[in-house]
Structure formats: structure tokens, C-alpha cells
Specification:
Elements lengths: L7 H7 L31 E9 L2 E9 L9 E7 L9 H11 L3 E5 L17 H15 L5 E11 L1 H12 L3 E7 L4 H7 L9 H15 L6 E2 L9 H4 L5 H13 L9 E2 L3 H4 L15 E6 L5 H10 L6 E6 L11 H18 L1
Parallel strand pairs: 3-4, 3-5, 5-6, 6-9, 9-10
Antiparallel strand pairs: 1-2, 2-4, 7-8
Helix pairs in contact: 3-4
């Protein structure tokens, strides 16, 4: 295990590079992934921006419909939960579109307090709220014209994967549960990624407590704030983990979106650091698929989830040879491997 000598926040403050992704410039839907829909054409896969209300907040989402979609037909549907810091226009949108190409109606929504969804203060990132986001997507899509509510699945990506597992423990609408490069946000926020911040747990909880006190006076304190405009290639090379180094490139340059940010309220740590995606995982009794790259430094999180998911006999940990965590978001050969596996999995269970 590589010892990271500085905190994640401090590390992020060191690394920046010039340049910004141009993928959003010409896409009318703001989508920033390769092969994204640029126009809704009859009898092809389409994307429809929608809004709905969840716990008093307006949620912004995209619904992807299959080629030849007709509201009078019945389709299986999949809820897609985005990564920490991500938005619906990035990897969640890519996989939602690919699922629509397979014949599913798919929804990708911005989490409450994040992206284009409402909520103040901005960028609250708490397990209860992120879990509710997934349930809220299910609430909306199960009544969408053409959806068969008895054929509902969920795909969670990175942090969205941990929250998808949490939602599926109790929400039995999900007949099949899949994750891609699952990231256990609670474990990582408490112990640090790769368990390198165990010695500072109490100090960081104290910081989170003080941040809550400040919020009561109107001062919002953030962690993980990154100035993407100021990162250099030289500094990127100093980051010892693929996940954070490649994540900065993905979110800060190649797949940049103006609504995407790494920052979250420091007060959120009071909830994050006392939560674990794998607690009570035996409550999942539906088919479970965990997809991860065999070179991903986050693989230990999917492996732990696989071991703890004792409530289902239909489970699989599917490894993509050669792939790192972030590469499963965009690299064509790895995306294809993941999509083919999802086709097999959802095709069998939905």
C-alpha cells in the first residue's frame, strides 16, 4: 500500500492543469461523453430533460428512451446513480444512453444539492440524501409512460454504487442491482482512501463539528475544493493513486462539466464518517453484479461488498482486465466490456 503523506484536500490544492474540455460546447444537452446524443431523432435513442420534486426540492434529470420508443409499449427501466462529484451529463449519462440502446428506459439525475438540482447549501453530500436520490429516481421513472414498474433495476457508479447498494437493502422495487467501480464513501471519508488517514479520524470529526457550528451562523465550510483551472501536468504526476490522478484529468479536463465539482460541505463528514455502504448488506436478496477494473486501486471496496452480500445467492464480482477505476468511465474497450456484462445481467433479471 502506498502511503499518501498529505490529506486529500491538501493534495488537490497542489495539482492543476490548463485547458478545459470542449465536449459541452456543441452539445445541446450539455453531455460530455463520447458518442453522446446531439439531437432527438425519431426512431432512435432519445434523451429528454425532465424535472420532478423530491422532498420539496426540484430535481434535474435526463430520461433516455430506446429506439422506436412508444408510450403504449412496456419497457424495463434502470436507475443510474452518478459518482461523487459527478453530474448526469458525464459517465452516468453515458451508461444510461448505452442501456437505452439495449432497450431500457434509463434515468440519470443530479443528486439533490448538487449539479442542476435544487438544495441549499450547495454540495451537501450525505448518505441519507444520496440514498433518497436513488429512491426518488425510482419514484419518478416507475410512473413514466411505457415503464413496467415490475422490471426496475439500478446501476450505481463509484460513490453512486455505494448509495445504490444502500438503497437496495430496503427498496425491493429493484429486481437487479449493479455497480460499476463501486466506491464506499463512508469508509473512504472515515479511514481515508486505502486507509491512509486512520490516525486523523478524531481530528477530522472535530473539524466537521466546528463546520456545523459555523453553518448555523451562515458560514459554509467546504472540503475537497479544487481549482481545475490551476492544475499542471507536473503536479499530476506526483499523485500516487490512479483514482485521484485520473479523476482530476477526467473531471477537470477531458470530461469537464460546469456543474461538476469535487467539493462538499465539511459538515457532511459528520454523517459520512459514521456510515458504511456495506453495513447490513445481507439485506440485499436480489441478483447483484459488481463490476470493477482488475487494476483499480478501489477494487478492495467491491471485494468487501461482494463478501458481505450474503443475502443473495445470485451475485458476481466481474473484473475488467487492465482497467483502472476511472478508465471504466470512458475508455471504449472497458466501457464495452461493462455494457456487455450489463446486457447479460439485466437481460436475465429484468
Amino acid at each position: 500500500m502506498i502511503k499518501i503523506a498529505v490529506s486529500l484536500v491538501a493534495l488537490w490544492s497542489l495539482v492543476t492543469f490548463a485547458g478545459q474540455a470542449t465536449a459541452t460546447v456543441n452539445n445541446p444537452f450539455g453531455l460530455v461523453y463520447e458518442g453522446a446524443i446531439i439531437a432527438n431523432i425519431k426512431n432512435e435513442v432519445n434523451v429528454q430533460p425532465v424535472t420532478y420534486t423530491l422532498n420539496g426540492l426540484k430535481i434535474a434529470a435526463n430520461v433516455y428512451t430506446p429506439a422506436g420508443y412508444a408510450s403504449t409499449k412496456k419497457y424495463p427501466a434502470v436507475v443510474v446513480a452518478h459518482p461523487n462529484g459527478g453530474v448526469k451529463e458525464q459517465v452516468a449519462g453515458l451508461y444510461a444512453q448505452r442501456l437505452a440502446e439495449l432497450g431500457y428506459i434509463a434515468i440519470a439525475a443530479d443528486a439533490a444539492y448538487q449539479g442542476a438540482s435544487q438544495g441549499s447549501p450547495r454540495n451537501v453530500d450525505k448518505p441519507f440524501i444520496r440514498t433518497e436520490d436513488i429512491r426518488g429516481m425510482a419514484d419518478f421513472i416507475e410512473t413514466y409512460p411505457g415503464v413496467n414498474p415490475d422490471q426496475l433495476g439500478v446501476l450505481g457508479i463509484c460513490g453512486g454504487g455505494g448509495y445504490a447498494l444502500n438503497a437496495a437493502k430496503s427498496d425491493k422495487r429493484f429486481k437487479a442491482i449493479a455497480t460499476l467501480s463501486m466506491f464506499n464513501s463512508g469508509l473512504a471519508r472515515k479511514n481515508g482512501f486505502l486507509n491512509v488517514q486512520v490516525d486523523t479520524i478524531q481530528d477530522r470529526l472535530q473539524e466537521a463539528t466546528l463546520a456545523r457550528v459555523k453553518e448555523r451562523t451562515g458560514e459554509i465550510v467546504y472540503s475537497g475544493d479544487v481549482d481545475f483551472e490551476a492544475i499542471t501536468e507536473a503536479k499530476l504526476s506526483q499523485i500516487p493513486t490512479d483514482l485521484y490522478r485520473e479523476g482530476l484529468i477526467y473531471y477537470g479536463k477531458t470530461h469537464r462539466h460546469p456543474n461538476s465539482t469535487f467539493k462538499y460541505t465539511t459538515e457532511s463528514l459528520m454523517d459520512l464518517m459514521t456510515w458504511d455502504a456495506t453495513d447490513n448488506l445481507e439485506l440485499i436478496n436480489a441478483p447483484l453484479l459488481l463490476i470493477a477494473g482488475d487494476k483499480a486501486d478501489s477494487l478492495y471496496m467491491s471485494e468487501e461488498a461482494f463478501q458481505k452480500a450474503s443475502g443473495t445467492q445470485d451475485k458476481e464480482l466481474f473484473l475488467i482486465p487492465g482497467a483502472t477505476h476511472i478508465q471504466t468511465y470512458f475508455k471504449p474497450e472497458y466501457v464495452e466490456r461493462a455494457v456487455l456484462k450489463l446486457k447479460e445481467f439485466f437481460g436475465k433479471h429484468l
